Amino acid sequence: MKLTLNIWRQASTASAGEMKTYQVEASPDMSFLEMLDVLNEELNEKGEEPVAFDSDCREGICGMCGLMINGEPHGPERTTTCQLHMRSFADGDTITIEPWRSTAFPVLKDLCVDRGAFDRIIQSGGYISVNTGAAPDAHATPVPKDNADRAFDAATCIGCGACVAACPNGSATLFLGAKVTHLGELPQGQAERWSRVVDMVGQHDHEGFGGCTNIGECVAACPKEIPLDVISQLNSDLRTAIRKGH
Amino acid sequence: MTDMPDTTTTAPESATAPAEFADDAAGYYTPGDPIRDTKAPSGPLDERWNTRQFEARIANPANRRRLSVIVVGTGLAGASAAATLGEAGYVVKSFCYQDSPRRAHSIAAQGGINAAKNYKGDGDSVYRLFYDTIKGGDYRSRESNVYRLAQVSTNIIDQCVAQGVPFAREYGGLLDNRSFGGVQVSRTFYARGQTGQQLLIGAYQALERQVAAGTVRCYTRHEMVELIVVDGRARGIIVRDMVTGEIETYFADVVVLASGGYGNVFFLSTNAMGCNVTATWRAHRKGAYMANPCFTQIHPTCIPVTGHHQSKLTLMSESLRNDGRIWVPKKKADCTKDPRDIAEEDRDYYLERIYPAFGNLVPRDIASRQAKNMCDEGRGVGPEVEGVRRGVYLDFADAIERLGREAIEEKYGNLFDMYARITGEDPYSVPMRIYPAVHYVMGGLWVDYDLQTTIPGLFVIGEANFSDHGANRLGASALMQGLADGYFVLSNTIRDYLADGPFDRIADDDPAVVEAQTAVQSRIDHFMSNTGTRSVDSYHRELGNIMWEYCGMERTEDGLRKAIDLIRTLRDDFWRNVKVLGSAESLNQSLERAGRVADFLELGELMCIDALNRRESCGGHFRAESQTEEGEALRRDEQYSYVAAWEWAGPDDPPVLHKEDLVYEFVEMKARSYK
Ligand SMILES: Cc1cc2nc3c(=O)[nH]c(=O)nc-3n(C[C@H](O)[C@H](O)[C@H](O)COP(=O)(O)OP(=O)(O)OC[C@H]3O[C@@H](n4cnc5c(N)ncnc54)[C@H](O)[C@@H]3O)c2cc1C
Ligand code: SF4
Ligand code: FES
C-alpha cells in the first residue's frame, strides 16, 4: 500500500517545528512503527536524518510509544501505537503523525516527548511505604477477589500519556485516578490512602496538567481501557481526605 | 541431605558418553587458569546463606550517607536493588535508557513468578524448587546459588504483596497459583498475563519513594557506554545523555550492573528494541569475565515472522501450553488447508506422541527444537518466508469445549487479544500459529556467590549475570531471580565490600578516567564522521541472521566456524561502511544503535566460540555432534561440567578460557529425560 505521511519534525525542545511530507510503501501486516522503520531506512539511504520516535517493548506494555495519528492518540484502534497495524489503513491514505501535545510533556525531538512529570507524580505518593524485608507473610491479609480485581484493572495503566494528549484541558486525571484506585482498593494501601490522594493531586496541578471537567476523551483514548469510575473514585477520595483534614 | 527420589524422570544409566576430548575451539582461544573459589561458604546447603549473611560485614549506618552506589538498570533487578540500597541509607544513582524507570523490559514478562510457598499443599518445598532448578538447568548451575535463590523466593512474594502488587486471588481472598513450564507443583504466582508489569510497578514505586526520600537519584534517557576502573576497582561509569548528547562521568564506591539480557544479538527476539549488551560488554572489556555466553533460551511459543520488515517477535506466554495442544498436519499437502478442515486423524500432536508423560508441557528447548524439526520436514504452517513455512498450531478447541470460552477468556484473554491484534486472526475460532524465538540468555557476566565479578567493586544482578539457571531456565524463574538478587541478596553481600569504603576520591584527570572518556568520544566521532553507505539496522539484521542460522536452536562445528568468519567480515565492514546521520549533540537514535551493534558484533563472535568449545548438548545448547540415536540431547559431564568464563584479551587476541568446575555435593547428576 502507498501512503502519504505528514510528520512533525522538530530538532529540539527549543527550536520551532514544522510538518513535513513523505511517501512510503507499506504492507498491511506491518505494525505502524515498522512502517516508520521502513521510512527511516529510506531516509537514511537518501541522506536525510531519520524521524525520532519512541518505542521499546513493541508489545503494548511498556508505555514508551505514543503518537498522535490523524489527531487521535495511538490512532484509530483502541490500542498502543506499537500494536496498531497497517491493516487499519487503506492504500492511498494520508496519515498525519504528531507528538503528544501538552504543556506538561515538552517535545524533545520530532515525535519524542518528556513524560518525567508522571514519575514525579508517583514520587509524591504513588506507593505503599514498606521497606524491603519488613513484609508480613503474603497470606496474612486476604483480599476479597472483587477488590483485588478492581485494583488490578486500575493497575494495568502503562503510563503512556494518551489520556493527557486526548484531553482538551491536558489533564492527567485518568492516570491519577488509576493509581489512587489501584492502591486504595487494597488493604495494604489504606494507611496512606488520604495523604496519597492529596499529595498526588497537588503534584499533578504543580506539573501544569489541566483540571478535569469530566469530558471523557481520556477513557476513549486509553489503550488499557482504564474505566471512568477511577476518576469518581479519585474525587470521592479527595473529598474524604479534605474532610479528614489532610 | 540426600538426593530426593526423582519422581519426574526415568533416568538412563549414564549421562556420559565415552571420554574422547575434542578441542573444537582450538586456535580460537587461549587456555587460562581455572577458577577455584566462588566464595560460597561450605557446610550444609541450607545454612550457607545464613553463614554468608552473618559473616558479611555491615557498613556503619552513620557512614552509609558517605557511601555511594551506581545501579545501571531499573528492571526488576535494578529497581529493587536501588530501592533497597536507598532504604538502607546509601547514596544511590540509578540509570536507565528509557524515559522512565517503569519501562524496563521486565515489564513485558507475562507468565508468572515462582516461589516455594507451598500454599497449595502439593508437596512443594525450598528443596524441591532448588532441585527442579538444578535439573531444569541441566546440571550447569551452582548448588549454593540455586539453593539460596529457592530460599529467598518466599520473601519476594511477601514483599510484593505488601507493596500492593495485585496478584491473582481465589474467591476466599488468598493468592492463586498455577503450574508452569515442566514442573509438577503449582508454585507460580501471577497477575493475569501481566506479572512482570505488576512486579515492576511495585519495584518502581519503591524506587520512586526513595527518590522522594532523597536517597536515590534517577537518570533516565542516560545510556552507560563505559565502565571506569581505577586501581583495579570499579569506580564509575561514563554515560551519554540521550537527549543532549552530552558525555557525562559519574563516580561511586561501587557499581552494580542490572542491564538485562543480550538476546537482541539475534536482531529478532522477544526483547525490547533497546535491550543491549553494551553495559556488560564494556565491563567485559575492562576485565569482567563473560560466562557461558552461548547459553540462549529459545522460547517455543512466539508469533511467527511475517516478512522482512519484522522488527521484533512477540511472545505468547508459555502458560498457553497448559491448555493448548500443539500439532502439525501429518501430510505435507494439508499444510495450506484451513486447519479446521483437517480431520483429527490427519493431525500429528507430535509432543504428545513423542513425550507421552509430559506432552505439551515439555521444557522449552525440547518444544522449540521439535517445532523446528516439524517445519524442516516440510510440515510447517502459515505464510512461506524464504521458502519455508515456519509455524505450528497451538489449538484451544478442546480446551474451549471442555472449560467453556469464558474460562479461557478469563485465563488468557489479553494474550488472545494480543494475538488477534498482531495477526488479524481470531484464536478463539482458528488455532494460533506459533514458532520459537530467542527469549532469554542464561549467559552473562561471571559473578561469585556475592554477585561480584572479577573486577572488585563491580556487581551484576538479574539477567545480566550468568549465575542461577545453568544451561536452561525454568519458566517463571527469571522474575524470581531478578527480585531475589535485587531485594534480598545484593544488599547483604555488597555491604561487605562497602565496609571498607568510602574509597579515595578520584581526580577528574585521573589517567584511567581520561582514557575512558577519550575512548568513548573517539568511538562517537568515528560514527559521526564515517562516510559509509549502510544503515546500522542493516548490519544488525545481518548479524542476527548469522546468529540464528548457526548459533540458534542447533549448532554444528562447521556452522560455528563459518559464523565466526562471517561475523569477523561483517564487523570489519561495519566499522568502514556504517552510516550515521544527524548530530551527536542531540537525540540521535541511529547513533545509539550504532554503539549497541558494535558491541553485539564482538559478543556474537564470543558466543560462537563458546558454542564451538562446548561439544556437548545441554539445556538450550544443542550441538548436532552430541545427540543420542533417537536425536535427543547428549550431555557430556566428564568433559563439560564446568562454567566457561571468558576473559577479554584485547581486540586482536583470542579470548582466554577459565573453567569453573561444577561440583555436585547434594544432587546426583542425571540425564534429563522427558519421555
Ligand atoms: C516477553 C518476555 C516475557 C517474559 N516472561 C517471563 C515470565 O513470565 N516469567 C519470568 O520469570 N521471566 C520472564 N521473562 C524473562 C524476564 O522478564 C527477564 O529475564 C527479566 O525481567 C530481566 O530483568 P532485569 O532486571 O535483569 O533486566 P531488564 O528488565 O531487561 O532491565 C534492564 C534495565 O537496564 C537498563 N539498561 C540496559 N542497558 C543499559 C545501558 N547501556 N545504559 C543504561 N541503562 C541500561 C534498561 O534501561 C533497563 O532499565 C520474560 C522475558 C520476555 C522478553
Ligand atoms: S490511564 Fe490509560 S491513557 Fe492514561 S497513561 Fe494510563 S494507560 Fe495511558
Ligand atoms: S513500545 Fe511498549 S507499549 Fe508501545
Automatic annotation (TrEMBL), chain A:
Main enzyme class: oxidoreductase
Gene3D superfamilies: 3.10.20.30, Alpha-helical ferredoxin
GO molecular function terms attached to this record: 2 iron, 2 sulfur cluster binding; 3 iron, 4 sulfur cluster binding; 4 iron, 4 sulfur cluster binding; electron transfer activity; metal ion binding; succinate dehydrogenase (quinone) activity
GO biological process, one term: respiratory electron transport chain
Cofactor binding comment, as recorded: Binds 1 [2Fe-2S] cluster. Binds 1 [3Fe-4S] cluster.
Segments forming domain 2Fe-2S ferredoxin-type: 1-101
Keyword Iron-sulfur found: yes
Keyword hit for Ribosomal protein: no
4Fe-4S ferredoxin-type domain boundaries: 148-177
EC number: 1.3.5.1
Superkingdom of source: Bacteria
This protein's UniProt keywords: 2Fe-2S, 3Fe-4S, 4Fe-4S, Iron, Iron-sulfur, Metal-binding, Oxidoreductase, Tricarboxylic acid cycle
Requisite cofactors: [2Fe-2S] cluster; [3Fe-4S] cluster; [4Fe-4S] cluster
Known catalytic reactions: a quinone + succinate = fumarate + a quinol
Record family assignment: Belongs to the succinate dehydrogenase/fumarate reductase iron-sulfur protein family.
Protein name (Swiss-Prot/TrEMBL): Succinate dehydrogenase iron-sulfur subunit
